[in-house]
Amino acid sequence: MVELVFGNMTTIDLVMAGLTGILSFVVLAIAFKMTLKGAPKWQSRKLVHISLGTFIALTVPAYSNLSGPTLAGGIFLTVLIYAWAHKSNLISKLLDSGSREGESELNTFASAFMGMIAFISVFILFMPEPSIFVASILAVSWGDAAGEAVGRPLGGKYVKKKLGQKSVEGSVAVAVFTSIAILSALALYSSIGCPLCIIPQILLIGAIISIVETLSVGWIDNFVIPFVTALLMWILLFPGLVIFGM
Known about the structure:
Number of strands: 2
Strand order of the largest sheet: 1-2
Order of helices and strands: HHHHHHEEHHH
Number of domains: 2
Helix content: over 70%
Radius of gyration: 18 Å
């Protein structure tokens, strides 16, 4: 797991930082172009969620220290500021392209900001077990995204009943892909020897996260899902894990 200090970067750190910074801008540019060409906003929004969330989740634990992620963020901001200098309404357009129907650009910014707060908090709290941090991001990037990606085109097609504004199909997709996200995180970053042996617990977490996503309003899910995922994994999968002396 990345150490909470600033220090010398390895070659892998430099490569990951460069790829993260550049990839982040490329994904945002593609999402922006998709919106300009008339694609539904939810498609560009989920492209950003899935692509960037996955890359960040899988790379952050592999850095040797905080210098790598800091460099990645610096590269992204440098490119973004350069582009903004040539197109003054760029930031506004990017926020608009990622906004949900009926929500303002401020809501979009709040969603991204609060999501980052949640990820950073989970990272610090559960640092001894990196798979919890990875799963908390992937639960949003894969699970939450799957709810809209499946629910939008298929919702109500076979099951007419709606749970609030969320379709039953979308809720099932959240549960399934959240479970896959947790299983993937455990397989890549956990000391658990047999993740498949705890499938019932993983499926239970996926089902609870699906309920949390269904009850969430607006951008709240980006803030709540990482915390709930982390807490459930701690309670059900890592009950002996010590965090902050607890």
